[in-house]
Amino acid sequence: MTKFSDYMSEWLYGDDGYYATYKNIGKEGDFYTAVSTSKFFGGSVARHIISLVDEGFLARDGVICEIGAHHGYFLADVIEFIYTLRPKLLSSLKFVIIERFDELQEQQREYFEESFGDVINLTHYKSLDELRCKNAFFIANEIFDAFACELYYKGKTARVDGHNIEFDVYNKWVDAKAKKYNKDRGEIAIGYEEFALSMANSCDKFEFMSFDYGEMQARPDFSIRVYAKHKVIPFFDEEIKRDELFKKSDITYDVTFEHVKDAYADVGVEFVELKAQMVALVDMGILNLLEMLKENADEKIYEQELQKAKMLIMPNFLGERFKMIRFRKN
Ligand SMILES: C[S@@+](CC[C@H](N)C(=O)[O-])C[C@H]1O[C@@H](n2cnc3c(N)ncnc32)[C@H](O)[C@@H]1O
């Protein structure tokens, strides 16, 4: 019998685990992320970064660091828009990706070389523990829903036997978290506290912006599910074939943002806001960017990009239950 969190870690990050190898996330893959939907996602973040420089929060030679970059498309889109909006910053800012897998680091390096030649100063680290800097902007998309979790049901924590789930142990830490977040059943994420501490120790002054699917207070229910070829299979579906899906498909759950917030509060990092992704993107100026494109590109390209960007900001598709959470350490 193994802990569920070990089983989920093995599923996603073990040898041949789902995230350990370079796969298609996006149109041909198992799920869409906002990153694979439109470049204007990264573009809006680029605009925000420039505003941080202008307000004096981020130094011109500060670090821009993406965590869990997978293909590296998000950071590359950010860079492309900084080039369009404030090209001078590209030679002073330092770009970092935190990526634990060598194979993915290599693919990201190749993609950056193809896209930017040697113009960009890109450094990789395996973990935030290796980074030490004075001033940074951290960005992440859909990483908190990819942390391993424990499953909890009415006082008991799950273990796994083969691929069967049994709720048969008492785990004091999980039980305390479940009570704190008013869940009599559901997922309790493992590792947020350690992650927040690593980030707080890595940099003296920073802003961290992260996008994920979830709620401040989670529903007291299971949301854990598997994505395989654009199909969503609830983890407790009677028909589920876990042995066939193991390591070959994505497994995820709704983020309890209150848990993320508490992890950062515990290490002295200030919570700034939680808001709907569509509101965040509009606030950061996605519409101004589209307006710029309209003025400078031909109509066909503008229409294509507009349709893709709309998916990010329309309710009921990606826009509504996706949230942006933001923290600052001064
Ligand atoms: C759902 S994918 C998102 C990939 C990419 N950000 C995107 O939007 O397409 C989750 C990613 O988070 C990474 N990840 C999960 N936990 C992490 C951690 N503690 N530190 C760094 N990366 C992590 C995984 O390796 C994976 O690449």
Structural overview:
This protein is of the alpha/beta class and 330 residues long. 38% of the residues lie in helices and 27% in strands. The protein is built from twelve helices and 16 strands. Strands 2, 3, 4, 5, 10, 14, 15 and 16 form an eight-stranded mixed β-sheet that branches. Strands 1, 6, 7, 8 and 9 form a five-stranded antiparallel β-sheet that branches. Strand 2, helix 4 and strand 3 (94-98) form a beta-alpha-beta unit. Helix 7 crosses helix 9 (257-266) and helix 11 runs antiparallel to helix 12 (299-313). The protein is globular and about 60 Å long. The N and C termini lie far apart (45 Å). The structure holds S-adenosylmethionine (SAM). S-adenosylmethionine binds at residues 19, 25, 33, 35, 67-70, 74, 98, 141-143, 146-147, 195. S-adenosylmethionine is lined by residues 19, 25, 33, 35, 67-70, 74, 98, 141-143, 146-147, 195.
